[in-house]
Structure formats: structure tokens, C-alpha cells
Amino acid sequence: MEIMEIFQMTFAGFTKAAWQTVQLTFWSLLLGTAIGLVFAFFKISRNAVLNGIATVYITVIRGTPLIVQIFAIYFGLAQLVVLDSFTAGVYALAIHAGAYIAEIFRGAIQSIDKGQMEAARSLGMTYPMAMRLIILPQAFRRSIPSLGNQFIIGLKDSSLVAYIGGTELWATALGAAADNFKQFETYLVNGFYYLALVLIFTFLLQWVEKHLDVEQRSVRA
């Protein structure tokens, strides 16, 4: 009974916060995917400098806690430019996700048979053209399951933005629990919202994966 009361009391606030969480996740993952793709190319590059930059970036980001990175972006960049909690959260989550996405893309690209690149070059394609038209579409399809997992992790990681004044789901839950003194029930309802978002993300990712699989089979046919 108390769970339903909490749900009714927090519905408006949690719904608004859920939309904020979706926006935070979307923009951070969009930027993180771009960062990951760039550093994936750095990582597979024969240029020692670019390869070294990618290695340092991936090692540092994967080796330090996300909450430290969020605080470093929010409070560190405040010395140069003032960022609101949403913008700082997007940047921090994007930089964090980018390191993992870079490794996902790197592995997917390197899993493509090298003969395909050689065949494309023999047909007169430049390296960038062959990568864009031949290698990347296949690598993207292969990376979708791993990217899906990373996107879901990114959604849940967005809760840490609450600690720099964000207004997403977890921050709203902390405020609601402080007001109604029913921490367990409030956090449980909050968990249902996260679960609903994860299920929606999972459904969309499965749809994309099936759509691309059907498209690929029709091309082969």
C-alpha cells in the first residue's frame, strides 16, 4: 500500500526526472560514441603518437572511478569555464563511455578479414573510402551487442550526476526520500523507473539488431 502511495506522490517528479535521465544518457552516449570511434582509429593507427594517446586515454579513464571523473570535470573545469550540472554530466559520461566504446569499435574493426580491405584497395578505393563503405558497416553490426550493454551501463551511470546537483532520477529520489522519510519505498519506486528505462533501451537495441540482421540477409540473398 505504501509503495502505491509513494508512486502516486512521486509520479510527476519522477516522470520529469526520467526524461532528464533519458536526455542526459542520449547526449552523453552520442558524444561518447563519436569519441570512441575517433580513439578506436587512433588505437589501430600505425602512428606511434596517435596510438600512444589512445592508450593513455583508455588506460586512465578505465582505471579511475567515474565519480572521480565527474567531479574532475565539474569542479576542475570550473577554473576555466562555468558548467551547469547537466552539461558537465554529459561531458563526463561521454568521456567515460568513450574509452569503453573505443575498445568495442577497435575489436570489431580488427575482427573484419583483412582481405576485404585489400580487395577494396585493389579496386581503386582509398583507405578512408574502403573503411567507410566496406569495413565500418560490418564492424558496426558486430559491435551492436557490446554497444547495447555499454549504453545500458551509461543509463545507470547517469545516476552519479546527482552528486554534482543534477536533477535526474536518483537526485529526485534522494530529495523525495528526505521529504517523506520513507527511504526504502522511495528508492524501490525509483528502481522501477530505472528498470522501465532499461527495458525500453533493451527493446530498441534488440529491434535495431534484428533490423540490421534482416537487412544483411536480404543483401546476401
UniProtKB/TrEMBL annotation:
Keywords: Amino-acid transport, Cell membrane, Membrane, Transmembrane, Transmembrane helix, Transport. One of its GO terms (molecular function) is transmembrane transporter activity. Residues 18-205 form the ABC transmembrane type-1 domain. GO terms for biological process: amino acid transport. SUPFAM superfamilies: MetI-like (SSF161098). The chain crosses the membrane at residues 24-42, 54-75, 81-102, 191-208. Its main location: membrane. It is found in: Cell membrane. It comes from the Bacteria. The keyword Transmembrane helix applies. Belongs to the binding-protein-dependent transport system permease family. This is Amino acid ABC transporter permease. The lineage of its organism: Bacteria, Bacillati, Bacillota, Bacilli, Bacillales.
